Amino acid sequence: MKNLVGTCVFGQSGGPSSVINSSAAGVFIEALKQKNITAVYGAQHGIKGILDENFYDISKEDLNELWLLKNTPSSALGSVRYKLKDASVDDTDYKRILEVFKKYNVRYFFYNGGNDSMDTCNKISKYLLSSGYNCNIIGVPKTIDNDLYGTDHCPGYGSAAKYVATTMMELNLDATVYNSGQVTIVEIMGRNAGWLTAAASLASATGGEGADLIYLPELPFDIEKFLESVRNVTENSQGKCIVAVSEGIKDIDGRYIAETLATLSASKDNFGHTQLGGLAVSLANLVKNKLNCKVRAIEFSLMQRCAAHLASAVDVEEAFTAGQMAVKAACAGETDKMVVFVRDDSSSGVYKCVPTLIDVALAANTEKKVPLEWITPDGTWLKKEFIDYALPLIQGESKAPLENGLPRFARLAKILVPKI
Amino acid sequence: MKNLVGTCVFGQSGGPSSVINSSAAGVFIEALKQKNITAVYGAQHGIKGILDENFYDISKEDLNELWLLKNTPSSALGSVRYKLKDASVDDTDYKRILEVFKKYNVRYFFYNGGNDSMDTCNKISKYLLSSGYNCNIIGVPKTIDNDLYGTDHCPGYGSAAKYVATTMMELNLDATVYNSGQVTIVEIMGRNAGWLTAAASLASATGGEGADLIYLPELPFDIEKFLESVRNVTENSQGKCIVAVSEGIKDIDGRYIAETLATLSASKDNFGHTQLGGLAVSLANLVKNKLNCKVRAIEFSLMQRCAAHLASAVDVEEAFTAGQMAVKAACAGETDKMVVFVRDDSSSGVYKCVPTLIDVALAANTEKKVPLEWITPDGTWLKKEFIDYALPLIQGESKAPLENGLPRFARLAKILVPKI
Known about the structure:
The structure is a homodimer. The first copy, chain A, is α/β, with parallel strands linked by helices. Chain A has 15 helices and 13 strands.
C-alpha cells in the first residue's frame, strides 16, 4: 500500500515506561516531516481516544516540547488497558474505528505497547484490510518486562534494568550498614518473565554488590528451599541477606506465591492478568517467623518504570529510533508489522543492534521468557550469558535538562482536534 | 586545648544518607594533611568500634578511593544505633572509651550523626573533661530528617529532598496515566519532623506536578478531614489524587496513625523510638473502603536515603565541607562543638551558607520541626517560605563516575589496626 496520503494517529497503551515518550518523540518528529502525512494526531488514552474521537493536534505543539518528550517518563497522551474483542465475536469497536479512520482520513496508525497492543494492531489491521480500507499500521514495541517475541529486547527494558541494578547497589550499601543482621526482600515487577528481576545481577557483575539471591518466575519457587538459601547466606554474612524476587514467582503447580502466602482474593485486570502485590511483605513475614531474624520488605513499585532520571541512553535512543522507523516504514508502504531490534554479534565485544520489521502477528500475545539455561542450576542467580546480554542495554545516560534542580519534562499544549 | 598531638578517630552513627560518606571523605582527606594528627582511624560501627577497639587504618587506603567516598551512599565504616547511658547511672562504657583513647592516644574524635550522636559526643566530651583527659571532640551533623537544632539545615537532607521531589514528579506522570481514577498514597520518612515529606511540594513549585496533598507530623492528622480532602481532589481531577504523607503523622492525642490503623504492636529501637511501617498500605485500604476507589500504596523506603545517583551537589559539597571543618576546628583547639550552617540572606536571591560551630550540647536531643506558619491553614500544603528555604538545597548534581553504566562506588581496603 504505497503512497497513501492522509493523517496519522499515534497511541500509547499499557503500563508506562521511562522511554515510551521517547518513541512518541520519534514518531511525531518524523511524521511532521513526511509529505504524505497531512496531519499528525495523538490519540488520548490509546484506542479509547480513537473510539471517542479524542485526538491531540501534534502540529500545534512547540517542537522544543516534542524534543523534551524524549526524556519525559510515562505516556504523555494517556494510556489505556482496553482489549479488543475478536471481530468474529463482536465487531462493534472495529466498525467504529473504521468509521473514525474514514472520517479523519487516517491512513497511518502507530501503536506503542506490549503483547496486547501488538494484538490490537494485528486485529485492526486485519479488519481494515477485509473492509477494503487502506491504512498502514506499524506497532512500536514497549515494555519494561522485555517479554515481546521477535526482538532482541524491548525499548523500556534497558532503563528499568538500569534502575534495578543501580538501586540494588545503593540498597546493598544501606541494608548492610549495621552491626546486626537483616534480611531484605526486594520485589520487582514481572508477572511471567523475569528479565527485570534478573537485572539485579548486573550490580554484582560489575564489581559492586547487589542481591545475594535472585528468584525469577521462569522456575518454580520452593518455599523450603528459599528459606534454606536465605539461612545459608546469613550464616556466612553476619545475618545479612538481600533477596531480589519477581512479583510473579509461582509454585510447582503454577500458583502465585503471593496468593499462597497472602491468601488474598486477587483481582484481575481487563486482560485477565491477576493483579499482584504485597509479595515482599508476605515473604518478609515468612522469613521473620521461620528464621527469627530482622527483615525489611521493599517494593520498587512504580519507580522502577518511571525513573527517567536514571534512564539508559542506549534505551532512550533505541526507543526514539523505533518511533522514527515505524513512520518511515509505513510511509514506504509497510503495514501490519512491528519494529524489532536484531543484535549484530559480528563485531565481538561491541554492542550493535539494528532495527528491522517483523509481522506484528508474530509478536502478538506471545511471551518471551529468560532462557532456563541462563539461570544457575540452584535457581538463585544468573549466568554470564545474561550479563553479556543485558549489560550493553543499560549503558549511558540520557535525561531531561534540570530547571531549579528538578527535571524539566515536556509540557504539551494538548489541543484537541475539533470533532468532525 | 590547643596543639594536641595524637591520633584521630572518626565514626558514623544512625541511619545512613547519600552524603554521610561525603563527610567521611572531608574528615579523612583533611586529617591526613594535619601534622598534629599522627594516625587517622575509622571506627567500625561507630561507638561500638571504639568499645571493641576495631579501627580501620585510613592511611592505608588509596587516596582515589577516599575521594570516591564523596559520592558513595550509606556509611562505609558501618553504622550503629547505640545509646550511651548517663555516666551518673552507669559509667562502664565511658571508662572503656577513656581506656581505649589512652591506649591509642586518641586526641581527636569526630562523630557523624543526628541528635542522638550529638548527645553521645557531648556525654563523652564531659566525661573525658572530668577525667582530665584532653581530647578535642567535634560533631558532624547528618540526618535526612533535617531535625537538628542550631543549623539552617543538615547534610543529607538536600539529597533526600531532591529524591522526593524528583520522584514525586515522575510518579505524578505515571500514576495519572490511565483514563480511570486512582488515589496514590506515598509514605515518606520522618518520625516527628516533616521536612522530608514537605519536599514533595518542590515538584509543583517549579512548574512540574507532584503531590496534591501533603501531610506532615507537625499538625494533628484527622482521618475524616483527610478523606474529605481526597474526595475533593478526586472530584476535580477525574478520580486522581496523589498524597504525600509522613510516616510519623499522629492524631490529636499524639497517637501514631499507623498504629491506630494497623493496630500493630509497634516494636521500639534502642533509642526508644517507635518503629513504624505500613502506613501507606493502611491509609490506602482506608481510602479504598471509604471512598470506593482504586488505590496504590508506595513507600520510598530505604531508596529515599541512599539514592546517591540523585544527590544534590549543594548537599554533597556541604557534607564534605562539614567534615573538613570539623578537623580544622579541632586542630585549632575547638572541642565539644558541632559544625552548623548559617544562611547568609544578605545577598537576596543567591543562596549562601557559611559553616560555623555551636556547642554540641545545644544540638543534642533537640528536634527542629517545620515551622507551623510555613504550612497552609488547611494543613495539606506548604507555603512559599518553605519553597524558598528548601529549593536551594536540592541544586546541582554530584555523583559517582559510571563504570559499565553503573556507579563506581568507593572500595575501601578496610585494614584493621592491630590491637595494642
